[in-house]
């Protein structure tokens, strides 16, 4: 049996995470790591597209509460994630597949550990189900 | 006498509201449809599908198709009209985005069948029969029914569509405008949506009552609260999809004191209505100083059904699984 390796997309805020690190080096180490200036910039669309392109989980590394460079970006992201988790559940995607963490790590030492920890959690959930609600075979004359 | 151009009007998985909207053109319907021959209109006239089969390919100028696609009969008809018509016009929200019929995609075929034929409290079905596509009566006779698909499709997921007119149903002015475009040959680019490109808020008569910064501290539902007939719904804490919905509907819901539910679909350039809805609401829901937004966020009942009320089949997450199973 081939080992299932969940694909994790990790967004992190440039103001709190890894800004003192050698980013290109870190990026080679952590696949699908996307530093972004303020996590509130993350459109729910990015997360949907990540799932559509094969991600098994999305991890968002935001700044600690009240420490956002833009006042309340981390709080906005938290609200968005809470709402989004409720929406993806209706599509049959477990809410644990989108997670948000609030902390700081300027050197970026922890990012790969956090992604690894997320990967283990998602590994326990297994791959996204193929027969997700209502999505069965489509047989008759498929559109070219 | 010169031959009139042929038009077909067909409903698929629809409620006939779109056909009703055409009939509601009243006297102007006669004038609008005077220069054309209607070769198919199951709601209003008696025609046989064999007449359509007998036509040459691309003989029909325009096929106006309303409704989503749920079963094999609807798909077959859609393919037939696609073959016989020069242009396909997705008419109404169900044809454009899947519509409210598309909400069924949140349940599997099995769940739907079990509820409708077994579990619903009003059903009496002691032998647990569920309709099958084929039933053999005897050696010579096999009865068939259209196959009920696993999910609902928007029209352009099955056939190529040239133009779209959303709306549940589309309003008369936009219908007449569209028909005039087709008849005059002054056609917009393929794939155009023949409706406004602005958000409903921009034309909403209540827009001037919107505060500079919208903040909702508690979500109120229309049946729990009597809305002020002149104030912005969002300012009153009642959810309204006006900010993320295309205008052009004539503000009919707003004028009867009902918030927008998004039937005109997302604005141009929006890839996923739900994603925009989440963004919008996450911004304006105010959780207060406690910074504990969980309760407020969870107080929105059925968020997926709310954001995707008319667009579930074309949502990114739904399409991913369609592709992976194709």
Describe the structure.
- The complex is a heterodimer of chains A (144) and B (326).
- In chain A, helix 3 links the parallel strand 3 and strand 4.
- In chain A, strands 2-1-3-4 form a four-stranded parallel β-sheet.
- In chain A, 34% of the residues lie in helices and 15% in strands.
- Chain A is an alpha/beta fold and 144 residues long.
- With 326 residues, chain B is α/β, with parallel strands linked by helices.
- Chain B has helices at 17-23, 27-33, 49-54, 72-84, 93-97, 109-119, 172-184, 200-203, 252-255, 273-284, 294-298, 303-307, 316-325, and strands at 6-11, 37-40, 60-66, 69-71, 85-91, 134-136, 142-144, 148-153, 163-165, 192-193.
- Chain B has a six-stranded parallel β-sheet, with helices on both faces. A two-stranded antiparallel ribbon of chain B has the order 4-8.
- The longest helix of chain B is centred in the N-terminal third of the chain and has 13 residues, at 72-84.
- The N and C termini of chain B lie far apart (49 Å).
- Mean pLDDT of chain B is 89; it is low at 322-326.
- The interface between A and B is large, with 38 and 52 residues.
- Find the biggest chain interface: A-B, 38 and 52 residues
Unreliable residue stretches of chain A: 131-144
Radius of gyration of chain B: 22 Å
Number of helices of chain B: 13
| Portion of residues within helices of chain B | 25-40%
Rg of chain A over CA atoms, rounded to whole Å, is 17 Å
Low-confidence stretches of chain B: 322-326
How is this structure best summarized?
The complex is a heterodimer of chains A (144) and B (326). Helix content of chain A is 34%, strand content 15%.
Write the layout of secondary structure elements.
The complex is a heterodimer of chains A (144) and B (326).
Chain A: E1 8-13, H1 23-29, E2 33-36, H2 44-52, E3 57-62, H3 73-90, E4 98-102, H4 111-125
Parallel strand pairs in A: 1-2, 1-3, 3-4
Chain B: E1 6-11, H1 17-23, H2 27-33, E2 37-40, H3 49-54, E3 60-66, E4 69-71, H4 72-84, E5 85-91, H5 93-97, H6 109-119, E6 134-136, E7 142-144, E8 148-153, E9 163-165, H7 172-184, E10 192-193, H8 200-203, H9 252-255, H10 273-284, H11 294-298, H12 303-307, H13 316-325
Parallel strand pairs in B: 1-2, 1-3, 3-5, 5-9, 9-10
Antiparallel strand pairs in B: 4-8, 6-7
